[in-house]
Every structure is written in C-alpha cells, then in structure tokens.
Design brief:
This protein starts with 7 loop residues before the first helix and ends with a helix. The protein is mainly α. The protein has eleven helices and two strands; from the N terminus they run ααααααααβααβα. It is elongated. Strands 1-2 form a two-stranded parallel sheet. Helix 2 packs across helix 3, helix 6 crosses helix 9 and helix 6 packs across helix 10.
Amino acid sequence: MASTPTTGDQVSSKRRPGAPDKRARVTDAAVQVFLANGFDRTSMDMVAAQAGVSKTTIYAHYPDKVALFRAVVERSTRMLAVQLDKTRLHPDQDPPTRLTELILAALEATVAPEFLAFLRVMITEGARRPDLAYQADPADLVDLIGLIASALSDEAKLRDYQLSDPRAFATLLLRMSASSPQLDSLLFAKFRPDRALLRAHARWITTVFLRGIEPRAGEAREVVPPTEDYSYPWLPDGRDEDRTRSA
C-alpha cells in the first residue's frame, strides 16, 4: 500500500521531537536566509524550506515578508537586552567598576557576529527600502539602562552631586560606548576585538564620562543632561518623540 504523503511540518516534527514552536523555527530560519540573501532575494518559499514548514505556516504567523523581516530585526535588537551573569557583579564593587562591567557586557553583545551581520543588512536595505526601517524601542534596553543608571547614581552620591535624570545619562553612556567598536568591526573585516580590548575601552569611556559629568567647584550640584537642544531618538520614556511632535 502506498504511503501517505507527509507535509514539511510533519516531516520536521518527526525529525525534531521537542523542537521549538513553529513561530520560533520560522524566525530562526528567516535569520539565516535574510542574512545570506538580503531582503529582495529572500522568498517565503526559501524560509519555509529552511524552517522545514509549509509556506502556509509562515503566513499564519507573519502576514508578509516585511513583517517577517521586522521580526528578525527585533530578534537581533533584543541581543542588547543583555542577560548579565550575576557572578560578574558584586555588591562590594565600586560604581566605576560596576559601570565598566556593564558596558563590557553591552559591547560583547553589540560586536557579536550575528548582531553585526544585521547591522550590515539594515544599512543596505534601509537606504533602498525605508519601509523596512526599524526604530529600536528603548524598552529593549530597560534592564541594562536601569543597572547603569543605578551605578551612576551611586557614583554621584559618593561624589556629592545628583543626576536629574539618571536614565538619560545611562542611555547616553551606553550609546557612546558602543558606537566606536561597532563601526570598527563593520569597516574592517579582520578587526575582532577580544575581551581585553573591550574591557579597556569600557574602562576608558567610563572614566572620561564620569569626569565629564561631575560638577566643578562652584557649579550646581544637580547635573542636567544636555537634551533641551540636542535630540536623541533613543532616549528613554519617548521624550524625543514628544518633542518631534510638538515642533
């Protein structure tokens, strides 16, 4: 008797018992296909084949290729929500040391090969396809920003000054720290910063930043971030978006 044909989903389920749910399989497959081919040369059929599911399964989760692309970009962006190993932070660490460790963790995430690959895709596709642009939600970074803000506040307390908005300062420090290693990694294919170099960079940026925000003699002891005439679309709480609407 002839065997009953099986769908791609059934074959995949038999081969991969206990595999991730289909949405996760589709997203994982899309990451590989988009990175290998870019947006225009990727088809839903290619993603379906990579994931071992039917094209109908993909459309059940994502209405079109743009939605799928945005989902995989968001997946990459979430790499910034660093899951810190608690053994790397100790209660007795001084604030500058804590800040260095936090920035180091962020640097390691943002120069990871997959994250850099997505940056390359976004740079290429963003110019040709504005509809693919992805605005990172500050909430993606809220845990890391909160930890940095706490360390900055502790340092300010030790130095007898106060930050009017620790989260804004934390966001500025994080962005300043990541940009240079990312750019070098994107421009120079052979540049692969090791942990020692990233740690030295994190320590240097932290030192310069803390010295820059600490009030000098005779200055106000409450430090206000320079955001009144300098807009950052990634500042927390959507304040830049509010200013843009009111302009």
